[in-house]
Amino acid sequence: MLNQTMDHAKINTIERHILDEQQSHPEATGILTSLLYDIALAGKVIASQTTRGGLVEILGKTGTTNIQGEEVMKLDELADRMIYRLNDHTGRLAVMASEEQEDILPVSPRYPVGKYVLLYDPLDGSSNIDYNVSIGTIFAIYKRTSTSGPGILADCLQRGRNLIAAGYLVYGASTMLVYTSGMGVHGFTLDPIVGEFLLTHPNIRIPEKPKYYSVNQGYEKFWSEGIRRFTKYLQGDEPDFQGQYCKGLSMRYIGSMVADFHRNLLGGGVFFYPADNKDPNFPHGKLRLCYEGAPLAFIVEQAGGTSSNGNQNLLDIQPESLHQRTPMFIGSRDLVEKAEEFIHTYDSRE
Ligand code: AHM
Ligand code: MG
Asked: Do 62 and 175 lie in a common domain?
């Protein structure tokens, strides 16, 4: 006879979970469900390649083809193409935009046009690939705002508040997919043997007590006074505006935002990439609002945290261009609000 507990434990695949969520929307057509499933599939393919990262390089050195006779591609290009190719013909999308591509990617006239818009960062943290460090994929799904034909730029330039769903994959010790469609944040771990994402982290909530702060402290000399003092506050060396000290958090910075964000989401804390004066071409820092800021902001808010550019919630910013950069503070609500306070107090007079 089967053990009672085993018999009743529900094994939830990502497909089953997304379908269950769909059922609570009687008006749903199933298109979003299929779209999320297509993204999960792209994630599986990318994961299968990232785990072979070092090998691809060696095989690539023998010429332009690998031992299967396929063209050897850099992993970030491969991820970019994989997401595009798995989604361009399905009839679910009107337009896509990728962090790797300068312009929007409207659905080809050869294929049916759908009502959704997909923005993605195919391989975030790609400078870490050569060092066998975790990397990730970020995605954002909107409904198109234009009414007919292939999608246009305006469909992609929507405020994060309009997001229908967002998520990320992290290719680390295991591959995880974390997503929200506005009904909480759920995390799935890829079983590499079976090839299925299984629900391992239902209803993720960011812990109230933060543990970590994450920033590239090597750039401290380029920061404003507000950012420096905020960081001292996180270290327990500077009081807040009520004279209270933070207990002093641990610093963790991987340099792959998805992985840094994921750790802080589960452990509690704040990730920030502030405006700085390191490079006059990028006064707002390095990160991109549409591909990185808005989707992670939607996730963190669904998990009980918040985000800001130092002045306003990332979800409320109207993007003006596809690759627009933004300062970014994201994680535990209390710490993001503290960052805003330090910035308003010390930097607004600059
Ligand atoms: P990418 O999308 O080109 O990989 O750049 C984004 C990455 C983030 O994952 C990470 O937080 C940041 O760049 C690290 O930048 P830096 O090396 O300046 O700290
Ligand atoms: Mg990126």
From this structure: yes
